[in-house]
Each structure stands twice: as structure tokens, then as C-alpha cells.
Write a structure and sequence with these properties.
Elements lengths: L11 H12 L3 H14 L4 E7 L5 E6 L6 H4 L14 H4 L11 H8 L1 E7 L6 E6 L5 E6 L4 E7 L6 H4 L5 H18 L4 E6 L2 E6 L12 H8 L8 E7 L2 E7 L12 E5 L2 E3 L2 H10 L12 E7 L4 E2 L10 E2 L2 H28 L25 H4 L5 H5 L8 H4 L10 E7 L3 E6 L3 E6 H15 L7 E11 L2 H9 L1 H6 L3 E5 L2 E8 L7 H9 L12 H15 L10 H12 L14 E5 H7 L5
Parallel strand pairs: 1-7, 11-13
Antiparallel strand pairs: 1-2, 2-6, 3-4, 3-6, 4-5, 7-8, 9-10, 10-13, 11-12, 14-15, 16-17, 17-18, 18-22, 19-21, 20-21
Helix pairs in contact: 1-5, 2-7, 9-10, 14-18, 14-19
The chain binds adenosine-5'-diphosphate and magnesium ion.
Family: Belongs to the DNA mismatch repair MutL/HexB family.
Organism: Candidatus Dojkabacteria bacterium HGW-Dojkabacteria-1
Protein name: DNA mismatch repair protein MutL
């Protein structure tokens, strides 16, 4: 016989615990809610104490306005808030909290005590719950502000407690939550005490405003040498104001680390904004490379919905495209200002930036050289070049695609093992960057995407690469794509065995090669979905590996081969990353440079 189905009305306590799981995922979520409350209370000093990754104790103490006696008994009730009273308020929100659910959920999953003294009252009050559930409310001693003590989080929900990670991991999650707050509230004195040791003591920065970034704090918090070179970003228009800092293009990196986005003071995550930043720099950094940034977006509250995520980690823009293009524009402006500023300085002989960092007209290798050729190929574009006063007379014409391609080579030779110099009967001289040219050739070949064009090579012994779990997923996801261009492989456990590869790639460091391809994706698990968007970037990365390198000695036939293949390219004038491949000079221009008129 079938059992009778019983509809249970859940006891309120259980309902609260279920709801709590959404807001309070782990100790870090408690820290976030408490800090939000202190900020909403206008605190100028906030002290955070963490014991055992927050699992044993989280205590946040502030000097804010405090809670009036008449309210203190209700702050732990669900949906009790002093911040909004109507739906209309929700649309004009500038406080961090608004749902009135933080304290009530924290209380549902841990042991909580709150002491507060309201600014306009003489005596502080405390509230806590006994194990029996009985609420105790009584007067207490405290000079001002509020302190909330949260102990034994999820102690009453063992299933949940079990899912917490080690104390160290939980502490790191807490730091991830805290650092953004430390960054955008330079006006607040924050102290973080971990297991009785002071980890951060950040006095308020004089005359600083909330919702702004100060380099001083940035320096202390990011602890990166590149902070000093970060560029100031600013934009104001169309209901959107953007401020903050973005890394100098020469400080690009493989990983998307130290990226902070705030929308109306709220730390959020948004891939679209990160992409817009890269886009704003795309002419200056290699494809797929990332940069660090701290961006503060202030958007009219009715143009952004903050109520879309249980922990408020995401927002929804009414018009995302507008926001993204504002970000892109602000970053582009910051970079362009910085580069032209330097060129001006150079003209006056003043150098404030180490020479290796200077973006100068012919300084193609500006930025750190990290040995990766993707990174080496720092980008130049016609526009970027045309900004410099240096080349205004000749170089722009040199990029013109309209002029006739010379055909009869009089002389061809290599200089510095990296450039091919070609003298043509047509009174033209070309200097070809051998790596950029070879990259362009391979890139276009790959783009045409016919494996028939690429000679395949079966490897005698399959080449074995150990990969991370996530990279293995990427290899599975991209199998069709890689097969199409000539890579064949088997996957076994955490190893990939390459059995065939296009002949161009035979000498490639396969491990690095795949790593670089995967680093183009925000999420390898979805890389096959992104393939349309990433296809060209992938080819560019591949081309970089499967091509003649800089520093490689070339035979005459090889030089001629590069030249011939290059002029057959759709765009022979730059490498796939946008760096020029050819520098052309007419004899008349050379003459002009020597003021030779005959
Ligand atoms: P919300 O922040 O969404 O209003 P909470 O549950 O976080 O909801 O807090 C409930 C109420 O308790 C707040 O609206 C506020 O009035 C009061 N409160 C909580 N923490 C503080 C604090 N540190 N200082 C002053 N008031 C506080
Ligand atoms: Mg709150």
C-alpha cells in the first residue's frame, strides 16, 4: 500500500534556517552583512575580529549611530529594516542593506549577541538569545556604536557546518569579502584581527571620501609593484560616473587577478565589465591578456537593479551596453592620456617613468618581457602610432594598403636575426619583422581553416601532456575544433596524448601552447560555446607558436618564402595581434630624411 502523503507545514524555525542558507553561505557572508550594517550606520571606525576562519567567532564593532532602544528588540525579526518602507524606496536605494533579513538569518544559524548605543540615548542595550530560544534584552555598557558577536556558525545545522572548508580557506573567503570594502571606504578606519593578531590596521585617509579609491590604500592592499603605475580612470555622462584605477597596459597578465568592480558602492562581479576594460585596452595589450583594475561605477539607482542575487554579488543593468561602452571609453581615454603624456615628457627630456616602461614610437618591446611571444607582441596600431609627433611625416602613409606591391627583389637579407630587409627595383625598401610576418601568415592559414592547407605530421610516439582537470575538460570541449585544424589526441585520466599535429607546430611546447589557448577563456568549461568569439584569438595564439621566431637565423630561400606568403595575405601589414609586420620606405622618403634634393 502506498504511504499517505502528508503535507507538513514547516515550523518557522526551519523556514528561517532554509532561507538563511541563501543569504548566509559561510562565515564570509556574515562578515559582509555586518560590515554593510556598520557602513549603513555611518561608521568611521570598524573593527573585525575573526577566530578559526570565522567558524568560532566573528565580531564586528563600529562607532556608527547605533540602534534606538525601542528598535533593538526587533532587529532580529525577519524583514525588519530601518532602511526602506516601500517599493519606491527600493528603486532609489543607496544603502547596503535593505531586505531586513541579515540579522534574522544570522540568528537562525548561529549564536548572536548585539550591543548598541544609540547616538541620542544615554544607555546602551544588549540583546541575545538563550539556548532555549528565550530573548534577553537588557541595558549594557558601551560608549557608542554597535558590536555584533556571532559564534558557532551553523552549530545548529551540522549538515551545513560539514560543508565549510578549512579555517584558512574560510578566512581567505572573508578576506576576499573585506578587501573591496577596505578599498572603497578610505574614509573608514578598518582593523582586522585574526586569531588575536592584527592583520590590517588601516587608518582613515585624511580628506578622503567614501566610494573613492586612494592609491595609498591600494598600495597597502594589493601589495603589487605595478600599483604605482596604475592609471586613473574617469568618466561622467548619461547617468553613469566611473572612477578608479586600471593597470598600465605594460602590466598585463595571464590571470584575471585584482579586479574590483563596485556599482553604487557595492562590490559585484560582472564579466561584461572586465571585458569592456580589456576592450578599452585592446590596442595596447595582447589578445587574451588581462589587467588589474578597481572601478567604481555610480549609476542612477533606477538604471540598475541590485535585488537580483541573494548575496547581492551581482546586479542587473537596465542598459548593460551603455554601461560597458562607458567603461571601455573611460579606460581607453586613461591609456591614451597616459601614453601621449609620456611622449610630451620625452620631448622635454623629462623622464618620470623608467625607460623600459615608456611607450615610445618605435619601442616595440615596451613592457616586461616575460619570454612569451604572445606577451612580447605588444600592440601598436595605426592610431596609436599616429599619436606620436615622431612619425607624422612618414609612417602613416607607410601603412597604406593601396600602394602597389613591389615585385622585383634586388636585395634581401636579414639583420639582427629578426628583421628582413628587402630592397626593390621600384625604389622601395621594406623592413619586415620576421616573427610578426610569419605569425600573420600562419594566422591567415589557420583562419581559412582547412586542414588540407596545413601539412599534418603523425608523431612517432604520442606526445604526453599532463593537464589539470579543468584543462582536460577544455580538451574534450574543443576536440572537434582541434581536429579540424589537425590536432589528434587521446585523453586518459589527467593526460593528453597528442598523436598528430600540423607540421608548423611540431617544435611547439604543447603544454604552454594549450595553456595559452585556455587562458583566453573566462571559463574553460564553456569554451566550446565561446568558440565563435574566441576563434580568432585562438588562431592568433596558435600562430604565435607555430611560426618563425625572432632571433632565428633565416636562409635566403626562407626569407623569400616569408615575403611571398606575406604579400598573399589579406592583411600583410600587421601581425594578428595588431603589431606592424612591415615598415616601408620609399627612396624619396629616405632622401628627404637626409635633406637630399637631388
Ligand atoms: P537591513 O540591513 O537589510 O536593514 P539587517 O537585518 O541587516 O537588515 O538589520 C536590521 C536593522 O538593524 C537595520 O535596518 C538597522 O536599523 C539595524 N542595524 C543592524 N546593524 C546595525 C549597526 N551596526 N548599526 C546601526 N544599526 C544597525
Ligand atoms: Mg543589513
Amino acid at each position: 500500500m502506498q504511504e499517505r502523503i502528508v503535507l507538513n507545514k514547516l515550523p518557522q524555525e526551519l523556514v528561517n534556517q532554509i532561507a538563511a542558507g541563501e543569504v548566509i553561505e559561510r562565515p564570509a557572508s556574515v562578515v559582509k552583512e555586518l560590515i554593510d550594517n556598520s557602513i549603513d550606520a555611518n561608521a568611521k571606525k570598524v573593527q573585525i575580529k575573526i577566530v578559526n576562519g570565522g567558524m568560532d567567532l566573528i565580531e564586528v564593532s563600529d562607532d556608527g549611530i547605533g540602534i534606538p532602544k525601542e528598535n533593538i528588540g526587533n532587529v532580529f525579526d525577519a524583514h525588519t529594516t530601518s532602511k526602506i518602507s516601500s517599493l519606491e524606496d527600493l528603486n532609489n536605494l543607496l544603502t547596503m542593506g535593505f531586505r531586513g533579513e541579515a540579522l534574522s538569518t544570522i540568528v537562525a544559524v548561529s549564536k548572536v549577541k548585539l550591543i548598541s548605543k544609540y547616538m541620542q540615548e544615554e544607555i546602551a542595550n544588549e540583546i541575545f538569545f538563550k539556548d532555549s530560544g528565550e530573548k534577553i534584552l537588557r541595558s549594557a555598557a558601551r560608549e557608542g556604536g554597535t558590536v555584533v558577536t556571532v559564534e558557532n556558525i551553523f552549530g545548529n545545522i551540522p549538515a551545513r557546518r560539514k560543508f565549510l572548508k578549512s579555517a584558512l580557506t574560510e578566512y581567505k573567503k572573508i578576506l576576499e569579502i573585506l578587501i573591496p570594502y577596505f578599498l572603497v571606504y578610505p574614509n573608514i578606519h578598518f582593523t582586522l584581527i585574526k586569531d588575536s593578531k592584527i592583520v590590517y590596521d588601516l587608518p582613515a585617509i585624511q580628506n578622503s571620501k567614501p566610494n573613492s579609491v586612494e592609491k595609498e590604500r591600494l598600495n597597502t592592499l594589493l601589495k603589487e609593484e605595478y600599483v604605482s603605475r596604475m592609471l586613473k580612470v574617469f568618466f561622467d555622462g548619461g547617468g553613469t560616473r566611473i572612477s578608479g584605477f586600471v593597470a598600465h597596459p605594460s602590466d598585463h597578465q595571464k590571470k584575471a587577478s585584482n579586479q574590483y568592480i563596485f556599482v553604487n558602492r557595492r562590490p559585484i562581479k560582472d564579466m561584461g565589465i572586465s571585458r569592456a576594460v580589456y576592450q578599452g585596452m585592446s590596442r595596447y595589450i595582447p589578445h587574451g591578456e588581462k589587467v588589474s583594475f578597481v572601478l567604481l561605477l555610480d549609476i542612477k539607482p533606477d538604471l540598475v537593479d541590485v535585488n537580483v542575487h541573494p548575496r547581492k554579488e551581482e546586479v542587473r543593468f537596465l542598459n548593460p551596453f551603455r554601461v560597458y561602452s562607458a567603461v571601455e571609453e573611460s579606460v581607453r581615454k586613461a591609456v591614451e592620456n597616459a601614453t601621449s603624456y609620456r611622449i610630451e615628457n620625452r620631448d622635454f627630456g623629462v623622464s618620470t617613468i623608467p625607460q623600459s616602461k615608456v611607450y615610445a614610437p618605435r619601442d616595440i618591446s615596451f613592457g616586461k618581457s616575460r619570454g612569451s611571444s604572445v606577451q612580447e607582441s605588444l600592440l601598436f596600431s595605426k592610431e596609436a602610432l599616429s599619436q606620436s609627433s615622431y612619425e607624422s611625416n612618414t609612417q602613416i602613409q607607410n601603412f597604406s594598403t593601396q600602394d602597389v606591391t613591389p615585385s622585383s627583389i634586388r636585395n634581401i637579407f636579414q639583420i639582427f636575426n629578426k628583421y628582413i630587409v628587402i630592397e626593390f627595383d621600384e625604389e622601395v625598401l621594406w623592413i619586415v619583422d620576421q616573427h610578426a610576418a610569419a605569425e600573420r601568415i600562419t594566422f591567415e592559414k589557420l583562419k581559412k581553416n582547412q586542414k588540407v592547407n596545413l601539412e599534418l605530421q603523425k608523431l612517432l610516439v604520442p606526445f604526453e601532456i599532463e593537464m589539470s582537470e579543468i584543462e582536460i575538460i577544455g580538451m574534450e570541449e574543443l576536440r572537434e575544433f582541434f581536429t579540424k585544424i589537425g590536432f589528434e589526441y587521446e585523453i586518459q585520466d589527467n593526460k593528453v596524448y597528442i598523436s598528430s599535429a600540423p607540421v608548423e607546430f611540431i617544435k611547439t611546447d604543447f603544454k604552454r601552447f594549450f595553456e595559452e589557448i585556455f587562458s583566453l577563456s573566462d571559463d574553460i568549461r564553456n569554451i566550446s560555446k565561446e568558440i565563435l568569439r574566441l576563434e580568432e584569438d585562438i588562431y592568433a595564439t596558435m600562430a604565435c607558436h607555430g611560426s618563425v621566431r625572432s632571433g632565428q637565423l633565416l636562409r635566403r630561400e626562407e626569407m623569400i618564402d616569408i615575403y611571398k606568403k606575406l604579400i598573399d595575405c589579406e592583411n600583410p601589414y600587421s601581425c594578428p595581434h595588431g603589431r606592424p609586420a612591415v615598415w616601408k620606405m620609399k627612396l624619396s622618403e629616405i632622401d628627404m630624411n637626409f635633406e637630399r634634393t637631388y
